[in-house]
Amino acid sequence: MADKFIEWDRDRLVVAEGTAAGEKAQFRLVRILERQSDSNDTLLLVDQLKQLFPVGADRKRASVAIVFPRQMVTIHRIQLPQVPDSEIPDMIRLQASMRLTVPVESVCMDFTPLPIQPGSATRDVLLVTVPSDQVAVVRRTLNDAGLELSEVRVSAYCVAQAAARAGFLRESADLEKVDVVAVMRRDFIELTFVRGTSVVFSHSGSSWTSLETVEKTIRAELTRARMSAAEILGEHKIDRVILIGAPEVTSAVTDQISTRLDGARIERVNPAEAFLSGALPEGINSADIVTLAGAILGEAAIGVEVVDLINPRRAPVKKDLRRLRVLLGSLAGVVILAGGYFWRQGQINELADVKYLVDTENAEIKEMLQAGSKEMTQSESVSEWANRDVEWLDEMVRLKSILPATDRMFIDSFQFTAIQRGASPSVKLVGFAKSESDVNELARKLRDAGYGVKPFEPEYRASAVSQDYGVQIVLEVSLPADPESVSG
User: Fold this and answer.
1) 3-state secondary structure at position 395
2) Which residues in 151-163 are b (16+ Cβ under 10 Å) and which e?
3) What is the pLDDT of residues 257-313, one digit of tens each?
């Protein structure tokens, strides 16, 4: 476990060294390293890090955990069918390859499952991505300074970990209420929406210019964050707003802001008392190291998911039992042959009689099946989908092989329908294309591959991702009754 932590922002680095002391974080070292805008930035950072963390006589590299602030990462909410947890990593990667406008190989990603709503046919996850080049720069800088990159965290989850460890967040079964944790720093304001102890949305905005403008600034950022959260979370009610910052800053925000926030309770938290143990160096604002305190306390924050962009969740490795099966099969064969060698001739005759009876019964069954072959065929067609679980991961792989590259079209979301007896499951694809001909070509490929495509009417509306994608599409695709017949 790392005991050195760096919040890596575009303008500066907050470097700290510390450990957990009970329910709080205790820092032995805190330094702020301002970044340069020229080519000497990396060289200067390497020299400063070498001075702070010199390599010992054993030449062993110290482990460092990096925390990226919200504005350095991208967070997507993705809907999945009700698949087992072991299949989620592969499903996430498939959806990311079709949803992201950049190659999946060019980003580092991790995800956190969100609480499952009772009775829902789907489940949601939050996908967090950061450009791989950005991580490579961090790794190279640390390596030149004699340090080793061990973790890459995200500030929104660190804030939730610190709040949960301090007792401000608790697990809850109420899926309609959310709490907003606002970290009020001098350089920016970070808002984290949590349901119980689960992060469901995150927003980063500009900070204030003076104490007189604090309330106006936080009110504006809360309004922007809630509008963005409504598109992702749908209808929700804010239960509490937890303001984390220096007392003179949080006290500048009156309780009147709750009138626009469903009458939410306003709670003010001094981070120096709630999250930190001991004194900080002069000139260090306690609100600026809340995320690092959360990273230190994160290992013991029960109930709070952890995002690590270089050590992401992966599908469990399946054990290769083929050699064991071959050995057991060979052993069983030897036992059968040895037993058969000592069988009496009378037993062989009995088996022959049994075989005759079985053959006779099989012939009768075949005659009955031939007489009702049409009814059996129809029954099998219906029960094939009704009597088994859909292999959604396989269906996603087949769809991915048909969908075009994201330079012509990308799918923004997938909506899965529950399977009812007598009907085939379907998937609604919502996305954007560069032209209507791309949409017609995709529909033709899907029909040729055996999928059912309902008539659709393209809407000419530019995507928020890029103005080049000017056609919005909504395709409702029904899966074929015989998935093995689908051609890519």
Assistant:
1) helix
2) bbbbbbbbbbbbb
3) 998 888 999 999 999 999 999 888 888 899 999 999 999 987 655 668 889 999 998
- How many Å apart are CA 154 and CA 74, to the nearest integer? 10
Give φ, ψ of 477 to 5 degrees.
-115, 125
Say yes or no to pLDDT of 119 above 50. yes
Task: Please state, in angstroms and rounded to a whole number, the distance separating the CA atoms of residues 465 and 310.
Answer: 26
Taken in order of first residue, the domains within the chain and their CATH numbers are 4-300 (3.30.420.380), 392-485 (3.30.1360.100)
C-alpha triplet 66, 67, 73: angle, nearest 5°: 120
252-256's contacts with Cβ under 8 Å and 24+ in sequence apart are 252/211, 252/212, 252/214, 252/215, 253/214, 253/215, 253/218, 254/215
Cβ atoms of residues 373 and 410 within 8 Å: no
Question: Model confidence over 377-434: pLDDT tens digits?
Answer: 655 554 554 444 567 778 888 888 888 887 888 888 888 775 655 567 788 888 888 8
Return the number of other C-beta atoms located less than 10 Å from residue 165's C-beta.
Answer: 25
Instruction: Determine the residue type at 23.
Output: E
Measured between alpha carbons, how far is residue 441 from residues 115, 243, 470, 473, 480 in Å? Answer: 38, 52, 16, 12, 19
Q: Is 68 within 8 Å of 130 (Cβ atoms)? A: yes
**423 token code pair:** 């009907």
